Amino acid sequence: MAFPLIGRKKTTIGLDVGSGLVKACVVEHGKGGPELVKVAIVPLIADAIVEGEVMDPGMVTDAIREVIAAAAVKNPTIVTAVGGRDVIIKKIQIERVKEQQARELMRWEAEQHVPFDMESVELDFNILDPEGVAPSMDVLLVAAKRDLIEGKMRLLTDAGLSPQVVDVDAFALHNAFELSYPDAMRGVVGLLNVGHEVTNINVLDDGIPILTRDIGVGTKSFREDLQRDRGLGAEEAAQVVQGYDRSPELDATIENRGEEIAMGIERATAFLATNSRASGQLRAVYVCGGGARIPGLVEALGARLRMPVELATPLTNLRVRDGALDPLLTDDVAPLLMLPVGLALRIVP
Ligand SMILES: Nc1ncnc2c1ncn2[C@@H]1O[C@H](COP(=O)(O)OP(=O)(O)OP(=O)(O)O)[C@@H](O)[C@H]1O
Ligand SMILES: [Mg+2]
User: Average pLDDT for residues 74-92, to the nearest whole number?
Assistant: First the structure.
C-alpha cells in the first residue's frame, strides 16, 4: 500500500525524517532475503520540525542530504513516508467485488469515512481477505492529504533526491514489526513508537493495523520536564533520557508522562470492549523509538497497564551486515530504527 511513482532496484533506502533525528537504513533485497547493510543518523537542530511542521526547510534538507550521502548508495531508491493526523487508516466492510470495482467504490466509501475534502486527498486501499467467499469483504482504506505528500516530496527534491515511494508511517512500522515479532501478529497488540515529539500508537488485530493515533509526548517532553522540574541543563537532561541507568531524576517524569502514554493506549483501545468483530482485548504492547530507551519507561508502562510491555527493535529477525551500524552502537540505536527499516523493507518494483 503506497503512492508509487517510479523505480526499479533491489537496494532500498528507508528515509525517516523525524523531528529529532533523520535516519536512513539501507536494505539489500537479495536471494537470501533482506539484509541491513548501512545505517546513518543525523540529528536535526532543535525546532527545525515542530508539531510535524517543517519550520526550517533548509536545515531539514541539509540533514537529508547528509544522511543520504552517509548511506552511500549509488542511484538510490528512496522510500519515505507520511503520518500524523492528516493520514487516516480505516478498516471498512464493503460488498465483495473485484479489485477494479473496489477502486471505483473507494471514493464513495471514503466520503463516508474520511473527514477530509475529497478533492485534497490521495486514496489507497487493500483488500484484507482477497480469497474470502463471504458476501462482504474487509478493506483497509487509507487517505492522506495531498499537501502532506507533496510537502514530503518537496523536501526530498530540494535535497536533490527523487523519492520513489511515499509510504504511510503506520504500515512501514508494521512491516518491520511483523518481520521481527511474528508472534505479535496474533490477537490484539499495541505497537508504540515513542519519538522525539510524538508517540504513535498502532493497534493490530491479528496483524492488521486497525487503528492509529498520535499523542504529543516524546523524549522532548521528558527532557523539558527534567529541565523545568529538576533544574537540569539541556545537555544533562538529554543524557539522562538517553542513559543506560535509571536516574532518580526520572521518577516524576516517568510517572506523569508514563500515565499520559498509558491513557493514550487505553483510549485508543477502549472501543475493543464493545467491538464484537475484534479478536479480543489488548494483550501486549511493544515499544520502539528513541523514547523506548528511557531507562525505566518500558517497565513503568508494564506495571501501569498490567500486561507484558516489551522493548522492540527491528533487528531481531533481520540479517545485519558486519559494520552496518558503525560507528553507532546497536543497543543504542536499534529501537530507533523500526520505521526506517520498515520503509527499506519495501521492494520497489
Ligand atoms: N542513541 C541515541 N542517539 C540519539 N538520540 C537518542 C538515542 N537514544 C535515544 N535517543 C533519544 O531519542 C530521540 C529520538 O528518537 P526518535 O528517532 O525515535 O525520534 P524522531 O523520529 O526524531 O521524532 P518524531 O518521531 O517524534 O518526529 C532523541 O531526541 C533522543 O532524546
Ligand atoms: Mg519518529
Answer: 90
